[in-house]
Amino acid sequence: MTPDEENLLRRAIELAAAAREDGNPPFGSLLVGPDGGVLAEECNTSLTDSDITAHPELKLARWAARELDPATAAGTTMFTSCQPCGMCAGAIERSGLGRVVFALSTEQLGTLKPPTSPSSFRQEGPALFDEARVPVEGYYT
C-alpha cells in the first residue's frame, strides 16, 4: 500500500468516527477515481435515516452504478473502514467497482463487538423450479 493509499484509508476511518459522533454505527467509505481523485464519500447513516441498508459501501456502489460509465467504475478504488458485509459486497460487485481496500477485516471487527446470535429466520427452497425459471430463462444471454 502506498502512502497516498494509507492516507485515503485514514480518511475512511475519519468518516467512521464522524458516523459514530452522529449516532450511527462507526463505518465510513470513500470512492477514488482512476486519476486518484476522491469522487464521493459516505458515512453509515442506518440509525439516523432509519434505513438498515444505509451502509456507506452500499451508498457508494449505488452512486457509482448511477453516475459512472463501466470503464470508469472498473478503474475506481473504494477505501473503507471495515471489510464490506455480504449485502455491500454484492452491490460493489454489481456496480462494477474495480477494487476495495479495507482497514478492519470482518474477523477483526468481530473481536471488537459482542457476539451475535445465529440468523433467526428460516430459508426454505428451492421450490417450483419449472415455474420460477420461466421469467429468468434467456435474460442473461
From TrEMBL:
GO molecular function: catalytic activity
PROSITE patterns: CYT_DCMP_DEAMINASES_2 (PS51747)
Gene3D superfamilies membership: Cytidine Deaminase, domain 2 (3.40.140.10)
Domain CMP/dCMP-type deaminase span(s) in chain numbering: 3-124
Superkingdom, taxonomy of origin: Bacteria
PANTHER family: CYTOSINE DEAMINASE FAMILY MEMBER, TRNA(ADENINE(34)) DEAMINASE, CHLOROPLASTIC
Protein's recorded name: Nucleoside deaminase
Protein species of origin: Microbispora cellulosiformans
